[in-house]
Amino acid sequence: MKILSEIKEPIGSELIEFNEFFKKKLDTDVALLNIILRYVTKKKGKQIRPVLVLLSAGLCGEISERSYNGASMVELLHTATLIHDDVIDRAKIRRGIASVNSEWNNKIAVLVGDYLLSMGLLSSIDADEFKFLKSTSKAVGAMSESELMSLDKSKKFKIDEATYLKIIKGKTATLMATCCEIGAISASDDQLIHKKMEDFGMNLGMAFQLRDDLFDYITKQSIIGKPVGNDLKEKKMTLPLLHALENGESSFSKKIIKSIKNEKLTKSDINYIISFVKEYGGVDYTENLANKYIQNSKALLSSFPESKYKTALIDLGEFVINRST
Predict the structure, then answer these.
(1) Residue 98 forms beta bridges with which residues?
(2) Of 11, 66, 138, 169, which has the fewest beta carbons less than 10 angstroms from its beta carbon?
(3) How far apart are the two ends of the chain, measured CA to CA in Å?
(4) Cα-based angle 257, 260, 262 (whole degrees, multiple of 5)
(5) Half-sphere exposure of 169 toward its Cβ, with a 13 Å CA cutoff?
(6) 4-322: what CATH class?
(7) Which residues pair with 97 in a beta bridge?
(8) How far apart are CA 316 and CA 320, in angstroms?
(9) Predicted model pTM
(10) In angstroms, what CA-CA distances link 258 with 32, 91, 162, 253, 273?
(11) Cα separation of 213 and 199, whole Å?
(12) How many CB atoms sit inside 10 A of residue 12's CB?
């Protein structure tokens, strides 16, 4: 498996140009806002979403300023959702540093998230990119609906696999689909290509989230930088657990649900649940499903001619399902 820096090599110079382009989008006349925006963006993370936009543009034609504008839109949108998610989850840490809500407060965090969201949508209007606007607006709606569905279902501890997959499609996969669709729109007028790249991103996004779900059960804290069992502590019912509860002995499943409903899970509780999930196939099932989504994504690229961009997108799929962070 190639590491992410190797996958980015075909767009190395374009990614540098994009980062400069994006930085200019964040200049404001408000001192506090400038401080917070610099704080938020000083750790770039994996940049998978702008990478998807640029690789998709290269695959479908050529990378241009339109591509940079599209990548900026999704990065603004993604950053806004992360800030809002941290407020909802009362998260203290984001990318190894204090979250905005922790460093300042919830009110400021919500306002900064709103600002980034509005900047993302306005940038499409300013550039007359109404197809970009339609795609990103659709993503914002799906993400909000899915977050509300997740909160409602999780509170009641009533969620099945179909519902869970619908939730992660809206919360995670839709934005990756938007990245690939916007990249294609920036480089081609062919609507069939736009749809194919949207579907590619949707499958990639589903696999990405399913791999995230596995970190609670297969990875050491020292590797991922967050406590193992973190989703369990936050009472998140992810696919490995849902599958095990469905297939495990009823008495064990009831005991698990009762433990999760308790105010606080002990280390012993978490270890028991992790063992239960592994024993009743939750890890294997989730890994297999993630692999199916990646195979679907590869099939969608089969009609495109060979290129460094196609190779990079295929390699990115392998990275998504094998990554440890």
Answers:
(1) 93
(2) 138
(3) 14
(4) 110
(5) 13
(6) mainly alpha
(7) 94
(8) 6
(9) 0.91
(10) 45, 24, 23, 9, 11
(11) 21
(12) 9
Closest residue by Cα to residue 171 from 52, 85, 47: 85
- Coil, strand or helix at 27: coil
Residue 229 is classified by DSSP as T
Contacts for 167 with CB less than 8 Å, ≥ 6 apart: 146, 149, 150, 153, 159
The phi, psi pair for 62, rounded to 5°, reads: -150, 155
Strands (E), 96-249: 97-98
DSSP 42: S
Per domain, the residue ranges of the chain are 4-322
Please check whether residue 228 is in contact with residue 192, taking contact to mean a CB–CB distance below 8 angstroms: no
Write the single-letter amino acid at 87: V
193 membership: H or E segment, kind and range: helix 191-218
Cβ proximity of 280 and 247 under 8 Å = yes
300 close to 199: Cβ distance less than 8 angstroms: yes
| Amino acid identity at 37 | L
Per-residue pLDDT of the chain (325 residues; tens, 9 = 90+): 789 999 999 999 999 999 988 888 888 889 999 999 988 888 777 889 999 999 999 999 999 999 999 999 999 998 998 899 888 878 888 877 888 999 999 999 999 999 998 988 888 888 888 899 999 989 989 988 998 888 887 766 778 899 999 999 999 999 999 999 999 999 999 999 999 999 999 999 999 999 999 988 886 543 444 455 677 777 788 999 999 999 888 877 888 888 777 767 778 888 888 999 999 999 999 999 999 999 999 999 999 999 999 999 999 999 999 988 7
Tell me how far apart the alpha carbons of residues 268 and 254 are, in angstroms, rounded to a whole number: 17
